[in-house]
User: Which sequence fits this backbone?
């Protein structure tokens, strides 16, 4: 379990019993196709009689390119500058010592930042504004905008809790509170190339005003608690087509961003899959429930020929099987019962040794090795974990699921990048079925490798310089600094199982627009590549001796200074020169963060009254009514739509001692949904048995199905199984077409089994045609 940071008893006061200086956070966002420009404004007020230094640790999206920082105090605007990290700290300390105002923005991790407001006089307020741009993920034709709002308590291994000065544990674990006297005000403007067809938030109730290609989104209430990620999904036309964005900034520098969505048609291939499951204490509550649901779907998305194992970790780790086991009805039954009983009861989040154990395992029968990590990602030693994944990237590919309301995007996404896979995030209340199906579609399909971009007539510096593999349905977003944009054709080439494949995209210089967004994102992509390279992580040195100066460090600093970017080597600093300097001791005030909703299964109502006491007027904390996750506002702003949760639909997954996978999976099914009953009855090899349960699920008596069984070649048992399988597929296609994202992989597996089965109807029809004809007759 992550270490519990100091818990503030009242939302109005800090651990020192002084007023919390942060009084509100306002975020304004502009989203255009693949990127977002976000402005975050923090308002600090000194309600004390002495000057203070306010320190606030908060999260940002891990791919954010922070490119602006300014402060307003007493009507004076102070513009921040990017400096090398040590120089920025020196300027800040010197200003405080002189009695001037000082403002510092520092990056602790790519998703954790610290703002410091120095020498804030009594009775005064200061506004800090930081600006960043970030690229958006695309999921099945929709962009996903994610806005972290709080830093969950992070588990720190021993080495991150010792040392000279401030440790990583101190830096990444601010004090936390059940309630705080500040909330979130949020507004979003959308401008998409295609018509917007859907806008929804699985995390917060929102109000939406849409006008074709544009829309405005606000919180349904004036403020919300900063206790969970804000997530917005937007469907619009054209997001899945190849595109190029060309920009020229005010200095004449040009940059290009290109997006390819390669169409791949490769069948699934058996893999050796290990599920690495976070069972630490922070996963208690809804997070471990989501893990159980996701794992059950993962198990049923595998195909015959696969080998698999499940390894759970916390302070120690344990595996289901001594080694990878072949995927069949027996192993599926055992795994299903095992997953049904999983609990978050293994202590601290020691992911490093567990990941090392899994990556050192040998592949079964020479099959591709795939590791699926399910975690909330709350650790301090992310750099070491990513380095381990990179060192084994040639032997195993890593796919990740981020679980919960505040999963660490840096660990979850960074681990997938380092391991050559992809990441998915499961927010509480979101439908997990399409995410699991999409993930396993990538995992089981060969990726495009040796991916290369030919830039035609353009002279470019590409970012990142090394291109990741591309998966079926995935989008490749690539940047480049360009000396002179001219008409040309870009070519993406890669190696597929069938051989070399190419994709082309024309570039027209007429499309160049003014701006610095693309150039900033290009610089951030290159900086992130450098920061995650062994040349940088290996040269960081100890905390006592600091980081060594390397060529990689110099390039990070150079790019950061040129484009005004935050990085692990640079910080923003702003100095307010004062005619009358502040004198006397300055009191340090650490702003408490709100404890992440559902973290560790904790519920405020279950805590001792002394920890729940609120000595401030509750009207000053607007947004408590927004605490329940899963609320969704549709484009029409109708009542919130319900989100399906497999635990409700399928009841208890599996039962110990079941003799086959179908019995194990369906034994506890209590839902009336025919779709999920049918899915539950599928065997590991993809087939169904002709049973009363299947007959009931598709709405017939078993006797009628048996009477309609066509005469067929082969053994009677084979014919019964083929008939049952064809009926199940026909029912899914006829009655559950709108839920195909849930059963697509299962249908592919079933069709493959039918194609390989030796029995065929004697009248020459295919099993599928016979089943479709039967179901179409009243």
Assistant:
């Amino acid at each position: 379990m992550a270490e519990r940071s100091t818990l503030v008893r009242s939302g109005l006061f800090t651990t020192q019993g002084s007023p919390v200086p942060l009084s509100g956070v306002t975020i304004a966002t502009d989203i255009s196709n693949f990127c977002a420009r976000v402005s975050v404004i923090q308002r600090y007020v000194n309600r004390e009689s002495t000057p203070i230094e306010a320190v606030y640790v908060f999260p940002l999206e891990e791919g954010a390119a922070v490119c602006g920082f300014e402060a307003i105090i007493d009507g004076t605007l102070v513009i921040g500058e990017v400096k090398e990290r040590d120089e920025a700290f020196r300027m800040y300390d010197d200003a405080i010592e002189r009695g001037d105002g000082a403002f510092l923005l520092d990056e602790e991790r790519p998703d954790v930042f610290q703002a410091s407001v120095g020498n804030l006089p009594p009775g005064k307020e200061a506004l800090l504004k930081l600006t960043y741009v970030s690229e958006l993920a695309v999921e099945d034709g929709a962009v996903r905008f994610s806005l972290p709002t709080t830093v969950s308590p992070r588990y720190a291994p021993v080495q991150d809790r010792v040392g000279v000065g401030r440790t990583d544990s101190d830096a990444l674990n601010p004090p936390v509170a059940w309630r705080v006297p500040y909330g979130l005000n949020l507004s979003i403007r959308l401008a998409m190339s295609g018509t917007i067809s859907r806008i929804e938030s699985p995390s917060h109730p929102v109000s939406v005003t849409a006008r074709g290609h544009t829309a405005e989104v606000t919180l349904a209430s004036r403020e919300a608690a900063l206790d969970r990620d804000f997530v917005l999904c937007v469907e619009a036309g054209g997001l899945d087509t190849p595109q190029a964005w060309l920009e020229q900034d005010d200095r004449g520098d040009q940059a290009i961003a290109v997006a390819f969505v390669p169409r791949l048609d490769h069948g699934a291939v058996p893999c050796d899959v290990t599920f690495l499951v976070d069972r630490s204490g922070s996963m208690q509550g809804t997070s471990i429930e989501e893990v159980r649901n996701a794992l059950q779907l993962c198990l049923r998305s595998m195909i015959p020929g696969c080998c698999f194992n499940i390894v759970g970790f916390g302070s120690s780790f344990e595996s289901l099987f001594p080694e990878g086991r072949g995927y069949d009805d027996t192993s599926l039954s055992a795994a299903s019962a095992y997953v049904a009983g999983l609990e978050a009861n293994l202590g601290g989040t020691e992911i490093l040794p567990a990941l090392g154990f899994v990556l050192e395992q040998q592949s079964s029968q020479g099959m591709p090795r795939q590791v699926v990590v399910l975690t909330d990602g709350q650790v301090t030693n992310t750099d070491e974990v990513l380095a381990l994944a990179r060192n084994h990237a040639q032997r195993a590919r890593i796919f990740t699921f981020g679980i919960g309301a505040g999963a660490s995007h840096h660990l979850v996404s960074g681990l997938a990048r380092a391991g050559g896979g992809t990441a998915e995030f499961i927010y509480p209340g979101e439908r997990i079925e399409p995410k699991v199906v999409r993930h396993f579609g990538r995992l089981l399909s060969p990726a495009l490798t040796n991916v290369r971009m030919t830039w035609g007539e353009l002279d470019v510096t590409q970012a990142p310089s090394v291109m990741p593999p591309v998966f079926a349905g995935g989008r490749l977003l690539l940047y480049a600094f360009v000396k002179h944009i001219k008409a040309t054709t870009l070519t993406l080439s890669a190696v597929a199982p069938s051989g070399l494949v190419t994709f082309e995209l024309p570039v027209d210089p007429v499309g160049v627009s003014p701006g610095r967004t693309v150039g900033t994102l290009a610089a951030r992509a290159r900086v992130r590549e450098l920061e995650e390279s062994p040349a940088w992580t290996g040269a960081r040195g100890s905390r006592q001796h600091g980081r060594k100066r390397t060529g990689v460090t110099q390039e990070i600093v150079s790019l950061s200074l040129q484009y005004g970017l935050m990085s692990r080597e640079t910080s923003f600093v702003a100095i307010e020169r004062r005619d009358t300097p502040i004198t006397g001791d300055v009191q340090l005030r650490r702003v408490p963060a709100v404890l992440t909703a559902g973290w560790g299964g904790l519920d405020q109502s279950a805590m001792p009254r002394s920890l729940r006491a609120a000595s401030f007027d509750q009207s000053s904390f607007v947004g408590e009514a927004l605490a329940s996750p899963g609320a969704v506002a549709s484009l029409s702003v109708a009542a919130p739509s319900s989100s399906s949760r497999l635990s409700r639909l399928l009841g208890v997954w599996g039962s110990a001692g079941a003799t086959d996978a179908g019995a194990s999976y369906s034994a506890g099914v209590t839902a009336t949904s025919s779709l999920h009953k049918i899915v539950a009855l599928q065997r590991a090899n993809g087939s169904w048995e002709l049973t009363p349960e299947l007959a009931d699920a598709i709405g017939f008596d078993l006797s009628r199905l048996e009477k309609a069984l066509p005469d067929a070649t082969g053994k009677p048992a084979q014919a019964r199984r083929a008939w049952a399988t064809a009926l199940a597929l026909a029912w899914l296609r006829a009655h559950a077409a709108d839920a195909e994202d849930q059963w697509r992989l299962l249908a592919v597996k079933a069709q493959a089994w039918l194609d390989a089965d030796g029995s065929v109807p004697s009248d020459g029809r295919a099993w599928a045609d016979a089943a479709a004809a039967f179901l179409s007759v009243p």
In short: Confidence is low (pLDDT under 50) at residues 1-5, 540-547, 604-672. The first strand starts at residue 7 and ends at 8.
